[in-house]
Amino acid sequence: MSDSCTECGAVLPPSGDCWTRVHELLEIENRVLPRIDAETAKRAHYFAIASYQLQHPSRLTPSAADGLLNGLRDMLSAGAPPIDAFRRAVGRQMAGTKVGRDAAVGDRHHVHPDWPRRWGVTAVDVLARPDDAYPQAVTEWASACLRELDVALG
Question: Which of 127, 102, 117 is nearest to 13 (CA)?
Fold first, then answer.
């Protein structure tokens, strides 16, 4: 077993599966998000899941990865729509589209060869922050993810 995730480069948790971190993020969300406004809470959840998935592209079809990348770009822009409107638009756009793929863990044959395998910010960094910083931490993660993908993919 590798000491780091082959997709995001973060040190693996004791389970040996980086996916465990999604559950840790959701635990924080259960503690934090009900206490804040719905718009910020839903954005935080979107940023966390989209960032994690983009850093683990072997789990996604190419069209799903493109959709998440474009979604991050839209939701981080100055003119970002309300999250509920964004979610409805994504639902219409992706209706009937397969987003996940059944493949061996780490199978990246369908992923752009320049897609990063090491990232400046990962779920590990978000999990290290205090719970009350979660919305800001996942926004920063999403911004870093978008910047790094834009540089890598040109």
Answer: 127
Within a domain: 12: no
Q: Six-digit token pair at 125?
A: 């960094």
Under 8 Å between Cβ of 93 and 71: no
The 10s digit of each residue's pLDDT in 35-45 is: 999 999 999 99
The CA–CA distances, whole Å, from 134 to 60, 128, 129 equal: 25, 10, 7
- DSSP H helical segments within 33-95, as ranges? 38-54, 62-76, 83-94
pLDDT of residue 25: 98
If pLDDT is split at 50, 70 and 90, which confidence band does 59 have? Answer: confident
Residue 15 domain-assigned (yes or no): no
